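Exercise 7. Given the components listed, write out the predicted structure of the assembled complex. Treat all entries as one system.
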Amino acid sequence: MLDIRNLSAFYDDDGALRVLHNINITLKAGSCVAVLGMNGAGKSTLLKAISGVISRVRGTILFDNKTVLNRSEGTPFRSGTQLKPEAIVRLGVVQVPEGRQLFPNLTVTENLRLGGYVLSNGKLVNDQIDKLNTHFPILKKKKKDLAGNLSGGEQQMLAIARALISSPRLIMLDEPSMGLAPKIVESTFRILKDICKDLNSTILIVEQNIPATLKIADYAYVLGNGSVVKEASASEITQANDLQEIYFGYETQNI
Amino acid sequence: MGGLYGLVAMSIVFTYRSTYVLNFAQGEMAMLGTYIYWTISQFIPIWFAIFLTLILSFFMGTLLERLLLRRLDKNNPSSSLVLTIGLLMVINSTVQWWYGPIQKSVPSPFGSGVIRLASYNFSLHAIGTILMVLLAVAILIILFKFTQLGLALRATAENWRAAQLMGIPVDSMLNLGWAISAVLGTVAGILVAPILVLVPSMMQPVMMYAYSGAVIGGLESPVGALAGGILIGVVENLAGTWSPIGSDLKIVIAFALTFVVLSIFPNGLFAKREARLY
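Answer.
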């Protein structure tokens, strides 16, 4: 469903500061894939590239065989094809960005409505909101509260619910566990996986928190310094010994 | 007059709420729109001229956004400040150069009649102005609170990165915000011109009061801006008539009022509760 080939991303126009180096990632429909890595490995940049919000990227990204990005090595950043962010959302690719990025001075309901911006039918948006309220009862209770006044866990739920309103084909989450207590992380992840099964959505999670993520993922890529250093099924990764070496740079004792 | 201050204040707040840019050139844009109206009204009947001018000012706003504001660094709010001040000077000078500094008279679109009510004379123009202002407020409130588009405009102003991820075409939203703001300003200009004569510096005295009104009302709320503007207008006139200060120092009263209000309500009288993400 999602085909990323030779993706490279840069910080500057001259291409001297490279963030991602020739990344290759494939996502099958209905799967739950994790992209793991330490800070600065380029995980957020990867998601930004897929969502089309950064322009200094080269390579090929195909979603459902439609071209999201196609720009060859060595060509200027204005050439080639790159879809605008709004077009990518309309294709069914939504992102829950790092730090949630809610609209703090708008109410919970208004935030949810914005998630349904690309849906043309107002009634459909309302139906979706109702559906999601059953999974996240807290949101229904606080529907008139300003989003900025919710607790961290509630904000995370709101951010996820907002992304799911449009029944996306692919939902990408950037470090969803950041700043949340472990118990909340576990329950949020579980709810996420259930909803995605219901909606027939595919999940791509970018995370630093390995254990919680591997519990719900099918497959995982490990990103180190902008390159894919390992990819395997979730169960293989859980048992891998060299994961610690990649992460920490040296061998540690088995936990 | 208070109503007019309120209207201009509202257009400032509207721009601010749609784009988080505080437009210092608002008055000059209004003035430009009014000059265009004057030119057009030489040839066609008044209400057609108004209609046409409003459409043109819509495009003026769009053009300004496309050419100038788009190039601003979205991350740096100070650049918009400099840009709008520069815009103010450019528009003012250009209009002076094109039309000449001699004042033009602009008749009120409502005619020069007067209604007598309970021993007070009300000019048709004043009544018409109040009605127009109320109409504008109603339209704005409906737009912002009850339509998807209004919601999208607010979202873009608040967090454009998140809005982008919702599939909202951010550039178009900012564009629309400016266009509507230009229209509002022009309406105010057309209503002001019959009272103060049409000169390039016509809007300048108004703007002092308008910005004060917008700030007193809290920059977040169009209704607040309206109320703030009206408040200042009323206080200004009362002060001029009753106090020993006299009409020359009226403007000091406006600033004094602003100072007092802000000391008690730092976010303005009508400010909504501010919520923070972290």
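Discussion: Confidence is low (pLDDT under 50) at residues 273-278 of chain B. Residues 2-200 of chain B form one domain.
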